[in-house]
Amino acid sequence: MSVKRNFLMTYTVTAYLDEDRVIADRGRRKIAEMDVLGWVKTEGIETAFSGTLTLPKGDIDAQRHEASEQVYNTIKEQMKQADAYTACQVSIIFLVDGLGPHFMLTV
Question: The organism sits in which domain of life (predicted)?
Fold first, then answer.
């Protein structure tokens, strides 16, 4: 069984080196244009998404872990598809309804 939880996420993409800023832009665009079931690009805010995550029923810790994994893996895949994964860092902060304090991730 699973449960759907609302989330709100924002992120920033930073190149490790100044000369890789074009790669960071490519990664940022790829994330902004992604089509993930249950995720909606927040209109008018360049680097934000909201939506629902489908998580396993169970304790809060298990749901927090799964939420973290879903967001991390989704963003990592987008950066890989943009050929930006090794040249950039994505800093993410997000909240999931009912799961306590905010999450912070680095991809």
Answer: Bacteria
Question: How many of the other CB atoms lie within 10 Å of CB of 26?
Answer: 19
Q: Which amino acid belongs to residue 100?
A: G
Q: Could you tell me the domains of the chain?
A: 2-106 (3.30.70)
At residue 72, what are phi and psi to the nearest 5 degrees? -55, -50
Q: What DSSP letter does each residue of 41-94 carry, written as one string?
A: E-TT-TTEEEEEEEEESS-HHHHHHHHHHHHHHHHHHHHHHTT-TTTEEEEEEE
What is the model's pTM?
0.93
